[in-house]
Specification:
eight-stranded mixed β-sheet, alpha/beta, 10 helices, four-stranded antiparallel β-sheet
Length: 389
């Protein structure tokens, strides 16, 4: 199907949203703006499964004698608590908050995709749903809340698309079944016995206990996980002490884990608890591990992976479509893809060679707007291909 991308609207939407970022669970003005624009586009319906999320849909009118299907496209609404380092004329107007992950681009592309499909209802049968999801950046995440509210009922397939620090206008398709990692974290609190720095024998040093725990944590991946599997255990915080001549009473360690294999995820958690308890016991200290389970890995279906490769190559040309093993970051799109066959695509929005050296979440992350019409073409093509079979 030939169509024109509404580029003027696309850029207008993106710049407005970039100027007015809001944090997770607080996207009131963002979702109100999106709803206003969806109504102007003329979608067939809009619902709010949560306070700041939206589901809109467009029904095709193309005659068919086959059962119709429903495909969902997803974008995210929230921004990050990061001060934007930018000289853009439309930089964030909200101090300490910015769209340096690219969710402003995601929303704008989704609005443009909705407008194209609303104007070409006669080109497809079935239904396209548009998920404007709140709170992707903050666990427990908005996707699980939307799923619990029933948004995936009747959905046959789901597609996600995310901008990335890569060559403008290219698409990356993860050929692994997992397009991302599972992310979990822990806070380890160690209680020793404080003492004067000159008399360590009278106390129990929580810094020593913590240091041994950190060392042991680094053996989990190297000695317990299959080398062919992706896994990371990263201690990222170590707090203890206030003055140089006092052995403190307590220490605290923060850590983050990333895995793809569910069994690895389970094993790493078990090893962390065992290591902490064993090392603390050996020194006569006490330990508490506070575990926070994060997002699961995005599971893709083979059919949707192959469909994405074919559709993207047909739409953009083979030279503009690449493959990879998936990202080491985590994403709660996994809640949607756990309910229906899914695929998660990456859209290059600017590489270092193109003057965009900073990756997502950096204060100077940039989106080259030339990439956005490409994302719209891919979203439209994926929806039409799935519904028209």
């Amino acid at each position: 199907m030939h169509f024109d991308v509404p580029e003027t609207d696309l850029i207008r939407w993106r710049r407005h949203l970039h100027e007015h970022p809001e944090l997770a669970y607080r996207e009131e003005a963002t979702s109100a703006y999106v709803e206003q624009e969806l109504r102007a586009i003329g979608v067939d319906g809009i619902e709010r499964p949560a306070k700041t999320s939206l589901v809109a849909w467009v029904k095709g009118t193309k005659p068919t004698d086959k059962p119709t299907k429903t495909v969902a496209l997803r974008c995210d609404l929230d921004a990050l608590p990061v001060e934007e380092a930018s000289d853009l004329p439309f930089k964030s107007k909200n101090p300490g908050v910015s769209h340096v992950c690219g969710h402003d681009a995601h929303m704008a592309m989704m609005l443009a995709t909705a407008k194209v499909l609303a104007q070409h209802r006669d080109a497809f049968s079935g239904t396209v749903k548009f998920f404007f999801q709140h709170a992707e950046e903050q666990i427990p995440g908005g996707a699980a809340e939307m799923v619990a509210a029933g948004v995936m009922e009747g959905v046959d397939a789901v597609v996600g698309l995310h901008v990335w620090n890569a060559k403008t206008g290219t698409i990356l398709v993860a050929t692994d079944r997992q397009a991302s990692t599972a992310s979990d974290s822990a806070v380890i609190r160690i209680e020793g016995c404080g003492a004067h720095g000159s008399a360590p024998h009278t106390g129990i040093d929580p810094i020593l206990v913590g240091a041994e725990i950190v060392q042991a944590l680094h053996t989990i991946v190297s000695r317990n996980i299959n080398p062919e599997h992706f896994a990371v255990v990263s201690p990222t915080i170590f707090r203890a002490g206030t003055v140089v001549n006092v052995i403190p009473q307590t220490a605290e360690i923060g850590l983050n884990t990333r895995t793809k294999d569910p069994e690895d995820r389970k094993l790493i958690k078990e090893r962390i608890f065992t290591i902490c308890e064993s090392v603390a016991k050996a020194h006569g200290a006490k330990v508490e591990v506070e575990w926070e389970q994060g997002y699961a890995a995005i599971e893709q279906s083979d059919d949707m992976i192959n469909r994405a490769l074919r559709v993207c190559r047909e739409t953009l040309g083979e030279e503009n479509v690449g493959t990879w093993h998936g990202m080491s970051a985590s994403e709660d799109f996994s809640a949607f893809s756990a309910e229906a066959p899914g695929v998660y695509l990456i859209l290059g929005c600017g590489s270092a060679e193109e003057g965009c050296p900073y990756s997502n979440h950096h204060p100077s992350f940039r989106v080259r707007e030339e990439a956005l019409p490409v994302g719209v073409r891919v979203e439209v093509a994926m929806a039409l291909d799935y519904l028209n079979g």
